[in-house]
Specification:
The complex is a heterodimer of chains A (95) and B (476). With 95 residues, chain A is an alpha+beta fold. Chain A has 3 helices and 3 strands. The longest helix of chain A has 19 residues. Classes of the chains: A alpha+beta (95), B alpha+beta (476).
Chain lengths: 95, 476
């Protein structure tokens, strides 16, 4: 089973990942086999099971509304490939 | 209706939750701090970081839901909304898709004395994105993540509005309710409350037209003019035989036009799925009831009470209660005073000064007790309404109390009969011809005498006594 190439290109576009032409077939095959595996789950009878968003039967733990001064801009920007002043800087984005 | 076309409008409001820290991290939410100074490792999406939800934000969403007469869901789920953008370090926004925290509700709006019910589809919690600055460098975009991860409530209306005026009233009402509840500060200039507006047009009786969404409107004025522009644009297209593309548009505040941001073919495919980092959010009825018991009097209830207790008309009551601080001010002034007088002074004199100086009522140059003192002076007949206006002007400029100004300027009203009689005599002696005309039947001249006497008294004569005296003198 192959993941169809148009869907693959669309997925690449949405994720801003460039997919080279020579990688298309092998990627399609890889993703296809993942989907094939997941397809097996479709055969399980789930008519009497509530939709599940998480496999743990627990609910969310909450924290109190306390603001902490944890990081400085310098620390946060330490791993940024490019920065200007105290901003992350990226190639111009025009919508 | 515009030229025989009906408008159908639905609105999504993004309201920033008034909290100290962010929705899933402990970073501060303060506005205006240095760039990237309020960013935790969670907000910056460093590998291995896990979100922990802020209980207060959940409570604020529940409070808001109750204020919008909506159903609070005992169980809701957080989903990942996936898209790639430079101000979204996670690569997805944590939002709620299928199971929001708040379900169906409604609010009532009043326009031209008509009440209309607008349905609320849902309210859900989500993260705000960071901020991109495009105008700092010709080749670069700068990103500040301080806003990244701040809690937003997205409030989605049903497509129940059919004019730009209704749309503005709706947003005003939601904002007012959130401010009463203190769940959002409603500051539109700072972006704490912004609206996405969906507009379509159709001929009466026909099926709905294709809609366009105008993003990120942050003032009532922009909401109004963007809707009018967009509706006219759609009508023009359809009437010239073209069809409407379903698309997202931006409103240009300089030109007053909307332009395409992205069309549907190019639309994002968000690939929502439940966030595996977050368990379902469960809210017990007991907690909902506890929150319910702390809900303050809301604008509609307060308005009805004001109409009943202070005999206000619908319009004045609506204006006064729309802002909580204004209604608090009003109630302090009106205590033991004539509501009619207080209403006039608050809604015309005070409001006009505040508007002129672009101040909120909290910044009013005249404190409530000073305005009360001035109104006491009017009620007791010590100063006339006209004089009171001069005194009020001085109070606004100099910040003095009415008592001080009256004493300083000798503005106290002349109610002494002897003094008034002298005034009246002076006027009559100075105008023998008009006295004669009056006595020969020219009644209209009465106003002239009043005016002259007032002028002579520098506006201080007690009008009622002056009238009586003049009448008795002229008619003998």
């Amino acid at each position: 089973m192959e993941f169809d190439k148009d869907s693959l290109l669309k997925l690449g576009k949405l994720s801003k990942i460039k997919i080279d032409d020579d990688k298309l077939s092998s990627l399609s095959a890889d993703l296809g086999s993942i989907l094939k595996f997941i397809d097996r789950l479709q055969s399980i009878e789930t008519d009497n099971v509530d939709p599940t968003s998480n496999s743990l039967d627990q609910s969310l733990v909450m924290r109190d509304d306390i603001a902490l001064d944890e990081n400085s801009a310098t620390e946060i920007l330490e791993n940024a490939p490019d920065k200007e002043l105290d901003f992350f800087s990226v190639p111009k984005v025009i919508e | 209706m515009i030229n025989g076309w009906e408008l159908v409008i639905g609105i999504e409001i993004h309201a920033q939750v008034k909290s100290n820290s962010k929705l899933f991290s402990s970073s501060s939410t303060d506005f205006g701090s240095g760039p990237n100074s309020q960013v935790s490792l969670v907000d910056a999406a460093m590998p291995g970081m896990l979100p922990v939800i802020n209980k207060f934000c959940v409570e604020q969403a529940v409070r808001s839901g109750i204020g919008l007469n909506a159903k609070i869901n005992n169980k809701s789920i957080f989903d990942r909304k996936n898209y790639f953008y430079q101000d979204l370090p996670q690569g997805y926004q944590i939002s709620q898709f299928k199971d929001p925290i708040v379900g169906n509700g409604f609010i009532d709006i009043v326009l031209d004395d008509q009440t209309k019910r607008i349905g609320i589809e849902r309210l859900h919690l989500e993260q705000d994105a960071g901020k991109s600055l495009h105008d700092q460098d010709p080749n670069l975009t700068f990103v500040d993540l301080n806003r990244s991860g701040i809690a937003l409530m997205e409030i989605v209306s049903k497509p129940d509005m059919s004019s730009a005026d209704e749309a503005v009233e709706y947003v005003k009402k939601v904002r007012s309710i959130l401010r009463y509840l203190d769940t959002c500060d409603g500051n539109m200039e700072q972006g704490s409350l912004r609206a996405d507006v969906n507009v379509s047009v159709n001929k009466p009786g026909n099926e709905l037209g294709t809609r366009c969404e105008i993003k990120n409107l942050n003032s009532f004025k922009y909401i109004h003019s963007a809707i009018i522009y967009e509706a006219k644009r759609q009508i023009k297209l359809i009437e010239s035989g073209e069809s409407i593309n379903q698309e997202t548009r931006l409103y240009n505040i300089d030109t007053g036009e909307t332009h395409s941001m992205r069309s549907k073919e190019d639309a994002h495919d968000y690939r929502y799925f439940p966030d595996p980092d977050l368990l379902p959010l469960e809210i017990e009825n007991k907690w909902i009831e506890e929150i319910k018991s702390t809900i303050p009097e809301l604008p509609d209830q307060k308005k009805n009470r004001f109409i009943k207790d202070y005999n206000l008309n619908e319009y004045d009551a609506g204006v006064i209660v729309s802002d909580k601080a204004t209604s608090d001010y009003y109630e302090k002034v009106v205590k033991n005073r004539s509501p009619k007088l207080v209403t006039t002074w608050v809604t015309s004199e005070l409001f006009s000064v505040l508007n002129k100086k672009n101040l909120s009522i909290d910044e009013s140059p005249v404190a409530y007790d000073k305005l009360g003192e001035l109104i006491d002076n009017i009620e007791s007949g010590k100063v006339s309404n006209r004089l009171a206006k001069d005194i009020f002007e001085e109070m606004c400029e100099m910040g003095k109390s009415p008592g001080e100004i009256i004493a300083e300027k000798g503005l106290s009203q002349i109610s002494d009969e002897g003094e008034l009689e002298k005034l009246v005599n002076d006027v009559l002696i100075a105008n023998p011809k008009n006295v004669e005309k009056y006595k020969n039947g020219k009644d209209k001249l009465f106003g002239f005498f009043v005016g002259e006497a007032m002028k002579l008294s520098k506006g201080k004569a007690n009008p009622k006594l002056l009238n009586e005296l003049l009448k008795s003198k002229l008619n003998t």
